[in-house]
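To: structure subgroup
Subject: Chain for Friday's discussion

All,

I'm putting the inputs and outputs inline so they're searchable in the archive.
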Amino acid sequence: MTPMWPDRRLLDLVGIEHPIIQAPMVGPKADLAASVSLGGGLGSLACATLGPDDVRKEAGLIRQRTQGPFNLNFFCHTPPVPDAQREGVWKARLAPYYAEMGLDPNEPVRMANRTPFDATMCDAVVALRPKVVSFHFGLPEPALVARVKDAGCLVFSSATTAEEARWLEAHGADAIIAQGAEAGGHRGMFLTTDVASQAGTFALVPQVADAVRVPVIAAGGIGDARGIVAALALGACAVQMGTAYLFCPESNVSAVHRAALKSARDDTTALTNVFTGRPARGVLNRAVRELGPIAADAPAFPLAATALQPLRTHAEGRGSGDFSPLWSGQAASLGRELGATELTRSLAARALEHAFLAR
């Protein structure tokens, strides 16, 4: 029997059973995405720190486990112009931590780069033809969007305001992810830099739903079936959930990140730019408290991360998350340690139960 969801536009567009999308998050790979798709949702793979060969490998692993649709997600920010003076100020601010840990601040740093979507990556995507290609920080240049759509892929992107949602629809987005302030990870903002003005999910969703004709996906602070029902009642066709899936064994998050999530409460996260240079929500730790939460001298995204990487590596090696980006939304305390397939099915079943009880 087909589940009786109130608005099937996104379900029919994508070809999924349940209106649940696993948020793309740097770290989790094919295992999590495939498990969510197997459960009837839409699994997602964050590709911002992957090269084309890595994306091809992970997409292949997903397809080995499921024939269901999945989403490849990319950043489309403008690469920063190096600013030696600003980066020098940032390194000087971190110098006491280097001294505390006995680290050489002049040692070369190796870390994954966050590269915006470009023609080379577009070649890989066109060849792979995933059902959905989603973007963060707007959309890439029109020619690349056209190539993705001509390959038969649906294009999704995140909006943090109704204005951004209208812009995305006008520039080719097939669905809008309305990302509220409660969401973990990076803000998808691209027409504004004023993080203090960001609306919460349940204020943003109905305004975005009124502003566009394409399906709307609610994201931010949705941790259980009650949140799903509320989002659908406000005009969303589906929800995107990230933090809830970090509790799944398939997420493979670090031990310090998992411990932080398990102890997180509604008042223990903050929006901070100290880890990458762009505002993102994570669990409060030493770096956030002492350097931010918002640091005016942090280098532009993603350059702030480079100087922090040695501190993070050193601390994590000693079991500490003091300098790690512990991304989390505000509903982490609702998380359950279930397999991703079981969690997806359980969320859907309970959401349908709540919906029927509310009638």
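Points worth raising on Friday:
The longest helix spans residues 84-101.
The chain has 14 helices and eleven strands.

D.
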